[in-house]
Amino acid sequence: MSQGSGVAEVLGVDLHLELTGAGSRRAVLIRALREAVRSGRLAAGTRLPPYRSLAADLGVARNTVADAYAELVAEGWLTSRQGSGTRVAERVAAPAAEGAPRDTVRALPYDLVQGKPDPAAFPRTAWLASARRALTAAPHDAFGIGDPRGRLELRRELAAYLARVRGVRTVPDRIVVCSGAAHALRLLARILPGTWAVEGYGLPFHRGLLAEAGVRTVPVAVDEEGARVGELRHGPSAVLLTPAHQFPTGGPLHHERRAAAVDWARATGGFVLEDDYDGEFRYDRRPVGALQGLDPDRVAFVGSVSKSLSPTLRIGWMVLPGGLVDGVLAAKGEREPYSSATEQLTLADFLASGGYDRHVRRMRRRHRERRDRLVTVLGERVPQVRVTGIAAGLHAVVELPAGTERAALTAAERHGVAVEGLSGYRHPEDVGGTEKDGLVVGYATPPERLYGGALDALCNALGSALS
Amino acid sequence: MSQGSGVAEVLGVDLHLELTGAGSRRAVLIRALREAVRSGRLAAGTRLPPYRSLAADLGVARNTVADAYAELVAEGWLTSRQGSGTRVAERVAAPAAEGAPRDTVRALPYDLVQGKPDPAAFPRTAWLASARRALTAAPHDAFGIGDPRGRLELRRELAAYLARVRGVRTVPDRIVVCSGAAHALRLLARILPGTWAVEGYGLPFHRGLLAEAGVRTVPVAVDEEGARVGELRHGPSAVLLTPAHQFPTGGPLHHERRAAAVDWARATGGFVLEDDYDGEFRYDRRPVGALQGLDPDRVAFVGSVSKSLSPTLRIGWMVLPGGLVDGVLAAKGEREPYSSATEQLTLADFLASGGYDRHVRRMRRRHRERRDRLVTVLGERVPQVRVTGIAAGLHAVVELPAGTERAALTAAERHGVAVEGLSGYRHPEDVGGTEKDGLVVGYATPPERLYGGALDALCNALGSALS
User: Residue A94 falls within a domain, yes or no?
Assistant: First the structure.
């Protein structure tokens, strides 16, 4: 049989076979099929095309295919059963994975690492209902090449929602949808190169991606009233702040400092980048509107659904000063919307239908209850610690006696608790401001049935470390 | 009233108001509400909280809120109707968009620009059914922080599908999900810096993003048998090829050149990057399996659903040599899966349930019919041209008499046809190989009812340009 190949198109199933090498057609076909099974290319259970169709497609006699199938059934590579056709036998061993399996970090039973909502709380039913409405109502162009700013339907809903709930002042044309806060920072780093001022405490992950993008970060000391923005000088092209709830120490930026941040931007031509990572989750204190509302031309506002719904949706947004929109779109790549339009439309419906508000409010109640339990239990069982930063968010800071953070982390791991130390968030060059030992305790992640156990283990760990 | 703010939480709706400035509580509240409406922060039609709830939340008397609402209704900012509560009046003018509206390219009635499936052909119902099954069956961890390689469920289905249909040899651990081919090239550019050989004809968009990523591209001449890979020398870290269907000239890479590409990679330590952009859409010729199958350790295979389903889903994949997996993941960013996990799971179900095969086959029949019409109509009405590259894909090349491409493009625009010239795809440094005048005609995009008109307009345009 001469070199060639064929594809069977039957029952909506394609099968690609390379028919090469010496021998009769039957022998060549048997070899090709056997090799496809042996190599794992055709997985156990895969249904093969009826031999009539494969024969027609390969241009060989039906009997040739029928013989080949029969031979391979006899050899045990295939199985044939009335009604279910010919399939790859289940007992054929799968090939060993060629790629080295990635190391799996041994998961600890209690996950108190900050920043992640409980995956089990995702509102599947409501989200699916929004998806159904959105996909049914979507215009055809929703399935064409998208606007790199994101779907207009979503940007309209975001403009209205962020105005209503966060006091953001903007128009849909100034909103750019992206895949999350990290994506937003990467894009902003491209158009605001040089040095950024960042809070003395912040996400090492963010500092790392900025360094990778060529941005040098210099710390602004953080104290009880947030970042000391009054100490900012000329030089940085931007200052990255978490005004609503300093991450991770937990206080809101003092209103005089909010004004000072905007003054700095106006005076130097720099920009304030407002990471509103958990602005919707505030509890007993009065809410703090977005800093962006003070000056939409000097403050870029960054948010996402990662804390409110799920980090898995990969939908975030930037509310931009007019002068930054074109630069961000160019950095994003003209043809790269990144976020799926179907999911953007689903989120637009979820916002418009009130599903998002309902979910946020449900989670807010739940987070508040968890925070209260954390504060109560620690107060009773580990009175040496002080819990701070609790007015908002998905985490609290457990302040520890000086010099005990490392021992507390070791004890936590021994007690099955995954949790992070405060010092890991400190900028390597930070001097001044807060410098405390502590744990950053995320209370949102564990499923309901494990939260009590997680608190218990945390108390036991702290008790043993501090005794 | 002292500085402060409040949020009403009623009916699952939040409203953020900043209550600042001099005057009575009533005056301050009226000013805050009026400003929120005037600035467009509260959009026309937005429902306000019942005054009882707003009062409770702001800590003011009910009458104060009731008075403020009444005043604003009297001024025309709000409307109040029994049963539908108090809403922002529809007649309040929206603020002028602050961001400059982006230039809208005047759309031509007939879109024959290559590379896009007809958005109206998206299989909404089947996709939604997969979404419902996938979201219902998903484990909770699907809504947590994802594996940057992508969901295992999807990588398993892709490994099986690509093996069956494209002859790809791999395991799920070597597949990395990304947002599309452009994202894949950006990531590969990060870990394979320096110079890449690219086909003398190819997407300017790809060359541009590689240049932006710091990769210098050098052309390999293309002729009737594809890229002349035998001319490759030491130097490039990679060669980017479209072996199944050279883009855009349309021929498959000759089998001796396929072998030569792999030989080059083995001899130089370079990598072949196989852009399988439309490998599923082949018609009357025998299919060409993936080059990747020749050497999974030297060929990285890139594909996506952008041509087969929709560019809007932003799901693509890389099938990588084992040695490139960790580098690509590091370039991607440890915590950045980019593609939504819910959509990944939906695609996994769509593949497993046979929905993807059915859709591809339906589109293949449709594309083939359109291609046949194109060839027939041009043959009858514009016999001076030759249609090539038609064995596969979503586009054909209409070869024109030398020196007529510019006139043909001008005539096409005049006749309402958006289409691209072949010379725009030529690498600026390309010498040798194909150098023809031509049009790259994408026949997949127009909706069914417009396709006849599009062909008619194209023939009229070519007739007038070549007469």
Answer: no
